[in-house]
Amino acid sequence: MPTIHRRQTLELILIILTTLITDSLPLIGLYFWGWTSFVVMFVWWVDSIIFFWLLQLGYSARNGGRIGSRLFKTTYVAAIFWVFMFLQAYLLFVFVGQIYVERLNPAAIVGEETLWQTGQRFFQNFWILFQRKLWHMPWLGLALLMLLANHLFEFFSSYHSAAFAGVWGFIKRLAFPMFATLLMSIALWLSLVVETSTLLQTVSLRLTVAFVLLKIYYDILRLFKQARAYSKAERRRDKVRMYTARLSAKLGEQE
Q1: Quick check: 160 and 58 in contact, CB under 8 A?
Q2: Whose CA is closest to 15, among 28, 1, 26?
Q3: Residues 6+ apart with CB under 8 A from 7
Q4: What is the 3-state secondary structure (H, E, C) of 96-143?
Q5: 117 is a domain residue
Q6: Is 1 among the domain residues?
Q7: How close are the terminal C-alpha atoms of the chain, in Å?
Q8: With contact defined as beta carbons under 8 Å apart, do 73 and 58 qualify?
Q9: Once rounded to an integer, what is the mean pLDDT over residues 50-78?
Q10: What's the per-residue H, E or C state across 184-234?
Q11: What is the pTM assigned to this prediction?
C-alpha cells in the first residue's frame, strides 16, 4: 500500500470496502434476487450518470485554474459523456428494450421510422420498462443508493484530485461500461430472439458475470493507482515544506 498519512489510509480502506460492496451487488442480484443482464446494464448506466455530474461539480467547484480552462474541460467531457450515454440508452431501451416492450404489448411492434420517432420510442420504452421490469426489482433501489453514496464518499475524500483530474481517465472510466453494455446487449438480444436456446441464455448470463468481476477488479486497481498518485503528490509537498522551513531557519540565523 502506498505510503500516505493515517487518515488517508483509512479513507482508502473505506473506499475499497464500499466499492467492493457496491460493485458486488449486481453479482448478488443475478444469483439471488432474480436480476437479469438488463437490470445490470441499467445500474451501470445510472452509475455513469452519477459519476459524470459529480465530475462536473468537481471541475467547477473544487479544481483550480482559469475559468476559461475549466469551461473547456467541462464542455469537452460533457460532449464525450452525452455520446456514451446516448449509445448506452439506445442499447438498453431501444435495441434490447423493444423486445421486452413488444412482449408486454404486441401492438408496439414497429417498422421503419424516423430519428424523431426513434427518440419518442426511447422515452415510451423507458417508462414502460421502468414500471414493468425495474420498479419492482428486488433491492434495485438499494443498489442505486449505494452507487450515489460511494461516489459522494469518493468525491469528498482526499483522492478527489487524483480521481477526477484527468480527461483520459474519465474517458476510460466511461468506456468500460459502454463496451460491456455493447457486448452484453448483443448477447441478451440474441438470447431473447432465440428463446429456445439455453446455450445463448447461459452465454448472456456468464458474459454479464464476467464483466461484473472485471469491473470490480478495474475499480479496485483504479483506487490503488489514485492512492499512489496522491502519495507522490503528498511526498512532493512534504519536501517543499521541509525545504521552505530550512530556508526560513537559515535566513533567521543570518539575521
Answers
A1: yes
A2: 1
A3: 158
A4: HHHHHHHHHCHHHCCCCCCHHHHHHHHHHHHHHHHHHHHCCCCCHHHH
A5: yes
A6: no
A7: 44
A8: no
A9: 63
A10: HHHHHHHHHHCCCCHHHHHHHHHHHHHHHHHHHHHHHHHHHHHHHHHHHHH
A11: 0.81
Cell of 230: 496522491
**Residue 27 pLDDT level (bands cut at 50, 70, 90):** very high
Classify 83 as helix, strand or coil: helix
Among 250, 236, 227, which residue's Cα sits nearest to residue 157? 227
What is the Cα–Cα distance from 160 to 77, expressed in whole angstroms? 17
For 41, other C-beta atoms within 10 Å of its C-beta total 23
Does residue 114 lie within any of the structural domains?
A: yes
CB 210 within 8 Å of CB 30: no
pLDDT tens string 168-200? 666 777 788 889 999 999 999 999 988 888 899
Q: Which domain holds residue 211?
A: 6-254
What's phi and psi for 33, nearest 5 deg? -110, 5
Q: Which among 52, 197, 102, 66 has a CA at the least distance from the CA of 111? A: 102
- Give the chain's domain count: 1
For residue 246, is it within any domain?
yes
Please answer whether residues 30 and 188 qualify as being in contact, where contact means their C-beta atoms are separated by less than 8 angstroms.
no
Longest Cα–Cα distance of the chain, Å, equals 90
Number of other CB atoms surrounding residue 173 within 10 Å: 20
